[in-house]
Amino acid sequence: MSFIGPRMNCQLHQKYPISLLNLTKGLSKEKRLLCTRCNLQLQQNLYSIEEIFEFAVSISKSEKEQMEILKKDKDQLAQIKNLLGYIQAYYNKLEFEHQQLFDQVLKNLFIKQNDSIDTCIQKKQQSDRNELIGLAEQASLIIKQNSDKIELQENNSIQQLAKLDELRGRIKLLQDQLKMVNNDQSQSIILNQKALYPKLDPVQVIQQKKIVEGSEFIRIAEIQLEQQKIYDIKFNRDNNLFIIGGSKLKNSNCYVQIWKYENDQVSKMQDLENCHSGDVKSICFSSQEDSFFTGSQDTTIIYWKMEPQGWNKSQVLQDQSSGIIGLQLSNKGNVLAAVSNSIYLWKRELKQWEKVQVLNHSKKQYLCVCFNNDDSYLAAGSSDCQIYVYQYQNGQWILKTTIQDQSQEINFITFLQDLNLVAVLKDNFINYYEYSPNNWYDSKKLSTLSSFQVSYSKQSNFLTVASGKQKETLIYQVDQRDGLKKVQQIQAKSDQVYSSNDGKLIALFANQKLEFYSDQNMLY
């Protein structure tokens, strides 16, 4: 981005224009503006006007994006408020109609509470002579006074029962929708103005309720890959790009490819040549844009940014002592955790990424890492069969607890709500770890999977499991209360599985072939 700044000269060297700014805290105003003739060796925190301008523009863009998101949230809250009004009006109508039916049935009862017939029914064989006479007299009176109406009354009873069934069905429908609100699954109602209120079509509402049960992944595309090995595939936020990292292509010095997914069609966009000198084992997209990281066995991490002519290197993150096997970006997008024999933590400062800390508590090698929802905790699984949980305190990551003696090395780990964890071990066990206030975890086995090769979609809580020795790829929903629930099985073998963050796209890799499955029915 080019920037033409204001033309003004340095006060000390009046023939030279101001081109540098000093950002040191507490400086007087006249010491902040410098030219190239000033004594720069005694200065710190110097930046060009262009750099500061780009920094300010970047912050402005980010803040505008945040405000747009907040405005959309505000509109959605207004929709929720209107929907609550519809619910209240609908409830009032249900209550009124139910009370009318109750009063009508009560008024037309032949047998009233504690009358002669009711008394004999209650006492049965204990009824005395006078009560039995009263039963006969009341029954005779009912027949005499209503001989021409009894058949009609029976018909009315049938009609009232039908009306009651209809009301009970509508009450049950309202209860189900409120349960969906409690389960954080109400977005499909809020975003779809046709749902439930005020038309109240039961069949339509039942179909719209099937958020998980209605998920059906359909095969949409297939590509044959040149790589002998695939280590990672990541989708961007909009699911229209994905990056493949693997072994070197046969006829070029390329370990990374960029592909486009659009209208159920897949096409290659760019080979990133002459970038790494070893297999690329991990990829991580930025949370705000289509920039991404690639981690390689050559120990380097490259940060890629989109330019008009394609994706180019923006920064090379060096000084790792061994190959990179995993990358995880914090939810806020400002901290990158690189998994190797140690965990290398990089933080974004202005426009650059700077290494801020190295975690090396594992006795062997770290294998996976994840951040919790507010980025205050970090969990890492290791080949030494331990899980290490860190907390961010006073600008540093501090080891809080170690979950010891797992049955095998930890291949995958993720936080659920609060600080509870789910991990997949190399012996195919999937374990749940419940957090206790004393920084301890109680563990229990959830299930045995078909493979330890899994992919997790955080937004939908979907866990896709490779087929292993079986003939189908399984998709589960991970629930903190209900454990592991099978959502669907895809009749296809897979050695490795990859999924988008929202769970709408799944890629299955086997025999150098990549198959894509899409769930276009999912509602969020």
UniProtKB/TrEMBL annotation:
InterPro entries on file: WD40/YVTN_repeat-like_dom_sf, WD40_repeat_dom_sf, WD40_rpt
Cellular component per GO, a single term: cytosolic [4Fe-4S] assembly targeting complex
SUPFAM superfamilies hit by this protein: WD40 repeat-like (SSF50978)
Superkingdom: Eukaryota
Keywords: WD repeat
Keyword Chaperone: no
UniProt GO BP: iron-sulfur cluster assembly
Chain positions of WD repeats: 273-307
Short name of one Pfam family: WD40
Protein name, UniProt field: Uncharacterized protein
Species of the source: Paramecium tetraurelia
